[in-house]
Amino acid sequence: MKSRIKNFINNGDLRKVRFWIQLISFILFVYGGYLAINLGSSFPVFSCPYNDKTAATCYLISLQHQLAMPTEVLFSPAFISILIGLVTFIAWFMILNKAWCGYMCPFGTLQDWITALRKKMNIRFSIYTQNQFEQLSKIKYLFLIIVLLFPLLIGAGVLSNNWSASFCQMCPARVISPMFTGDFSQWTIDFSSKTNMILTSLGISFAALFFVGSFVKKRFFCFFCPMSALHYIFADTSIVKFRKDGSKCTRCGDCYAVCDMQIKDIADDVTSTNILRDDCILCLKCVAACPEDDALHFDILNIKAFSSTKEGFEKRMNIGSYTKNNEANK
């Protein structure tokens, strides 16, 4: 029975499973407020509170407000509130690791839907060169520095309160998320100060770039997402792991070919057991595309929950049925 369940999972259609998880998650995080669902303010996805119907709040905005407390307050017992927020974030994150990006984040899902639209229109996607990939993937850490440093400078009196939650003012989620509940008010520039004008202008520009970039490049925004960078910092705390058995890898490149994030290590690194990288969204498309038994596997509490198998690969590629039909016709 156990073996039968394992084979059913390993040989199943990952695309259908992922589609339904993403759809349900998108509805939850964008419209859950209509059902009075409130999952708190320390969530590890871009669930934007500028959409007042969301069921949870992205941890980045909560973190920025907490870190912006006056320095003397920050180093007082009030610091416990920051620790509680961080512990809550880590507790949520531990459940899925970076699969929050690949399956649960509404803005990751939106990018996948834009990619699906491009495919329907038979327009080819673009890719980065390896050098471009290495340079662009650093930008998310610059945004994370803004998330962490700017609030501290506000609390120290170096920056004015106009810089409050500065990343969120620039974030495309602030502009786009309310649109799904009919609110287009964030598509405006705040002229109340030069700082607000600059930040909100950047937000609108980044939102426009989000749509254009996501149309021509798979998971375009994920390369620049500070939440992804924060995830990777705490990746080792998760009960979920992404493993590779290099001795079973033939370096065929099938995994790299389907990787939306262009992670070369997934194919080239045959020495590392932990194959999770900072740009990985744990969509598991590489596992489904791998033709070698147990070369790649997704583990929960060190138990293989989804593994690459030759049988599963053949079934998903229709190779098995093709072979059987050929044998029957001989």
Q: Give the helix tally.
A: 18
Secondary-structure content class: mainly alpha
- Quote the distance from N terminus to C terminus: 35 Å
- Strand tally is 3
Our estimate of the beta-strand percent is under 5%
List keywords for this structure.
Alpha-Beta Plaits, mainly alpha, single chain, 330 residues
What's a quick, concise take on this entry?
The chain has helices at 2-10, 14-31, 59-67, 71-74, 79-96, 99-104, 106-120, 130-136, 139-155, 166-170, 172-176, 194-216, 226-233, 254-258, 265-268, 285-289, 310-316, 319-329; strands at residues 240-244, 296-300, 303-307. It has a three-stranded antiparallel beta sheet with strand order 1-2-3.
Descriptive account of the structure:
The structure is a single chain. The chain has 330 residues and is mainly alpha-helical. The chain folds into two domains: 231 residues, no CATH class; 81 residues, 2-Layer Sandwich (Alpha-Beta Plaits). Helices cover 53% and strands 5% of the residues. The protein has 18 helices and three strands. It has a three-stranded antiparallel sheet. The longest helix has 23 residues.
